[in-house]
Structures are given as C-alpha cells and as structure tokens.
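Translate structure to sequence.
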C-alpha cells in the first residue's frame, strides 16, 4: 500500500508571496501608466496565476487590454518576479514544521499550485525547502490546472501516492473546488488570499494556523472519505 499524501497549495497556503506578487504586478502595470494595486486589493486578484492577476488588475481600474497586451505584460511580470526570487516571500509560521510532522508520520508531501512550475521550483529552492516535496506541479505542468481535478489527481500520481489516501490543504475557493471535484477532503487555511472567508466554500475543515494541522485530523478525514 502506498503512503498517504498531503498536498499543499503554494501561494497563500505554504508561502506568503503576496508582497512579491504585488511588486511584480505593479512593476508591469507601471509600464502602461496604470495606478498601482494596493495591498488591500491583493485578495481580489490572486489565485489563478499571473495572467489572471493582470486581467483582474485591469478590470479593477476599468481598463481594457489591447490585443497582445496581456502576453507582453505577463512577460514583464514573470521577468521581474523571477529576477527577485525569493524577495520578501517566506513560509507561513509553522508550515515547515507541519510538513516535517507529516513526513515523520509516514506521509508523502507534494505541492499543487497554479503558479508556473519553474517559478514554483525556483521559489522553493531559494527558500531551502524544495527537498521536502515528492512532487511539485505548477499551472503549466499538465494540460489542465486547478480547479480542474485532474491537476490534483495527476500531482498525487506523480508523487506515487493513492488519491484514496490523500488530503489537500489550500487557501481559496479554487483549492476547495478542486479537491471536492477530485473526491478528496480539503483543509482550508483562513489566512491566505481570498476575498471571502474560506468557510463560505465549505471545506472539510478550516484552520487558522499550522499548529492546528495535525496528523490525527488528516487521518480522520481520510477515514471518513473511505467509509
């Protein structure tokens, strides 16, 4: 029998990347003379990758994207973000300790994120935690991305694990919808990037800190799903 697995989202779940995402977004917006997005707006525009961030920033300012402009701005965004990794990004308190706690209990750990795979690898390597994960799958790793359940299911398969013994941890409706569609229990953190409290999306559990993320909680969720 394969080991149980706990799969984490990245931005807003494992790592607080908001300051750097905002810096890179505002860097590319400045090239088209747009007002910067403020930190209080970050939860309204993140969750689906850099392209959607740019699209939502334009919508927030009631600006229209010209043909080809999104591609150009995304390139500027990605170049700036990549050049500054890890910047001010850092794991949320207790995140690494939680990962190690699950690994000590025999769990495989993986990352399933809509962030591009290369950027995800660069960030986790720069933070010195890349070795904690059996699989790190980004928004361009497979033909689909969250909320398509295939993104999560293929991440679990890449890690050599069984979806019937899996738990997802995320911070947004995207993560919750993905896990539900895959038939996998999902634990939502309430300190991530979402414009509504995660309880509104009915995850299996809500936690306010990684000290609340216990092996016992994951075991009970897996058992309930199997019954």
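Result:
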């Amino acid at each position: 029998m394969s080991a149980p697995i706990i799969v984490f989202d990245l931005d807003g779940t494992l790592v607080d990347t908001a300051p750097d995402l905002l810096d890179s977004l505002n860097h590319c917006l400045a090239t088209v003379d747009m007002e910067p997005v403020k930190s209080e707006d970050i939860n309204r525009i993140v969750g689906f990758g850099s392209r959607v961030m740019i699209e939502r920033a334009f919508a927030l300012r009631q600006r229209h994207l010209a043909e080809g402009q999104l591609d150009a701005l995304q390139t500027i965004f990605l170049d700036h973000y990549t050049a500054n990794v890890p910047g001010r990004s850092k794991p949320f308190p207790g995140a690494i300790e939680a990962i190690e706690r699950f690994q000590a209990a025999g769990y495989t750990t993986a990352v399933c994120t809509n962030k591009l795979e290369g950027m995800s690898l660069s960030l986790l390597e720069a933070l010195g935690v890349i070795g904690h994960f059996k699989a790190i799958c980004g928004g361009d790793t497979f033909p689909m991305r969250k909320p398509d359940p295939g993104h999560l299911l293929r991440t679990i398969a890449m890690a050599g694990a069984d979806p019937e013994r899996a738990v997802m941890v995320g911070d947004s409706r995207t993560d919750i919808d993905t896990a539900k569609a895959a038939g996998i229990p999902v634990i939502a953190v309430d300190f991530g990037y979402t414009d509504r409290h995660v309880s509104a999306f009915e995850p299996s559990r809500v936690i306010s800190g990684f000290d609340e993320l216990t092996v016992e909680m994951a075991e009970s969720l897996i058992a309930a799903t199997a019954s």
